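call fold(seq) -> C-alpha cells
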Amino acid sequence: MSALLAPILVLLAAPATLVDARLVPVAPLSLPGKPAPPRRERAVVLIHGLTVAPVSKERPTRAELRSWQVAGSPLVKALARDADVFSFAYAQTVPVEEIARATDLAGRIRTLRQMGYREIVLIGHSAGGLVARQLVEDEPDLGVTKVIQACVPNIGCSLAGLRAARSTQAAFLASLSKTARERMLKMRAAKRIPANVQFAVVVGTTRLGGDGIVGLRSQWPDDLQNQGAPAYSVAANHRNAVRGAPGIELIARLAREPQPRWAPAEVARMRRKLFAH
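ret:
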C-alpha cells in the first residue's frame, strides 16, 4: 500500500455520524498499478449546497456529490493545477447549522492535517458556505487556512421560506429562510472569522439584486463587511457560479492567491459597486 493511499483509506472510513456524509479525494486519483502522485501542500475541500429533490424522498437522506464536485469537472480540474482536491457531501435531514457537528466535519479536516497538508481551503457553494463559515468560527484552531463562499445565503433566502417538497428535507430548508438565519445570526453574534483564516466572498450578480436565488446583501452581509472580508463579483447565476468559466476562474484564483482582510476604504469601494443601484 502506498504512503498516500493509507491515510486516504483512513479518511474514507466514515466515522459514526448523525447524518450520512463522506469526504472523498477527486484530484489527483490513484490508479491501480500506477505509483501514487505526489501530494501537494494545499488541500481544497468542496462543499455543496441545497439538494433539489422535488420527487425523491430518499435523496436528501443520502450524501451525494454534485456534478461540479466530481473528478474531471471544470472546477476540480482548475483547482487541481495547484492543489489536491477533495469533495464533501452530506445528507440534508437536519438544519444547516447542525451539519458540521452531525457529520464530524471537524474530525475529517483534522485527518487532512494529519496527512501533512500545510494549507486547507474550504470552498462552499450556497448553503455549503454556511457550513464552512460556522466550522471555522467554532473551530478557530482546526487548521483551515482559507474559506471561499460562493453565492451564500448568509442572511437567508426568500425561496427557502417555501414549504419543503419532502418532509425529510424540511428542517434543512427551513433553516435557510430569512427568519431562521436572522435568529441564528443573533445567537452567534459574538462569533467572528478567526484572524488566522483568510475569508473571501464570491458574489453572483447576473440579475439585478443578486444571482437569481440569493440577494447581494445576503451574499456579502454587513457583518462580513465589518470584518473586512473581501468580496468579488462575477457575472453568473446561482447555479453557474461553480460551473461556468467566469466563476471557476475566479474561485481558482482566490484559492491560489492570498486573501488578506480589506481596509475600510476597500470595503466602501466594493459597496458602491455592488449596492449603488
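Residues 1-7 have pLDDT under 50 and may be disordered.
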